[in-house]
Design brief:
Layout (H helix, E strand, L loop, with lengths): L3 E6 L3 H10 L6 E7 L2 H11 L3 E5 L7 H10 L5 E6 L4 H10 L3 E4 L4 H12 L12 E5 L3 E5 L8 H11 L4 H8 L3 H15 L4 H15 L1
Parallel strand pairs: 1-2, 1-3, 3-4, 4-5
Antiparallel strand pairs: 6-7
Helix pairs in contact: 1-5, 2-3, 4-9, 6-8, 6-9, 7-8
Length: about 220
């Protein structure tokens, strides 16, 4: 079995100790660096390019969101996982839109943690949004969208929606689909209108939920 290199980061030393224990000998993981703040976390990711990095959202220096943004802007290949005490569907959707490969609760057992990180290392996403017949988000008010409303999207719009859920920027989507940044913006505007949503965070969450419901 391939040994997965991992950077871990959390402001609480006791949490780092727990991660070290869970990802210790026999787990298939090798911890290559530990951090107690976001600044050293992103520096370790840049320097070591681990397979996976798992870090808290609330850290001194840089937050987990800022670590995600920095890694994405630099196109770092490390798969990034947020390790959090609590995350609602909105936060998970934001993580998906920001390019995270997973969100894992600190309540999980060591066995579940190892299994989830192994799946992330293998290329699977661990974003536990609840599949349902209706998706309900709270932005500035309540937005309720039925699963079957996605039938209003064209094939191209569905492609763009899926790429948004993978955390790609408009320019990156344009390069992948060989269309201009301006065309992407027009498609997104039409999609927001059709689905009655106002931002790509909710769009990304819908893409993930739809994917799960299809499965």
């Amino acid at each position: 079995m391939h040994c997965v290199s991992v950077v871990i980061a959390d402001r609480h030393p006791v949490v780092l100790l727990g991660l070290t224990y869970a990802l210790g000998a026999g787990s298939g993981f090798k911890i290559v660096a530990r951090s107690t703040d976001g600044t050293s976390c992103i520096e370790n990711i840049r320097r070591l390019i681990p397979d996976v990095a798992i870090f808290d959202i609330s850290m001194p220096g840089l937050t987990g969101w800022e670590v995600l943004a920095a890694a994405k802007s630099e196109s770092l290949p490390t798969r990034l996982v947020l390790f959090t005490a609590s995350a609602g569907e909105r936060e998970i959707a934001m993580a998906a839109a920001a390019g995270a490969h997973g969100v894992i609760s600190k309540d999980v057992t060591p066995e579940s943690l190892v299994q989830s990180l192994r799946q992330v290392a293998d290329g699977q996403r661990q974003l536990p949004l609840r599949p349902s017949k209706q998706v309900v988000f709270r932005e500035q008010g309540r937005v309720t969208i039925s699963e079957n409303v996605l039938t209003v999207l064209t094939d191209r719009e569905r492609q763009i929606m899926r790429l948004v859920s993978e955390g790609l920027s408009n320019k990156e989507i344009g390069r992948k689909l060989n269309i201009t940044d301006g065309t992407i913006k027009v498609h997104l505007h039409h999609m927001f209108q059709k689905l009655d949503v106002s931002n790509r965070t909710v769009l990304a969450a819908l893409a993930i939920l739809t994917e799960r419901n299809v499965e």
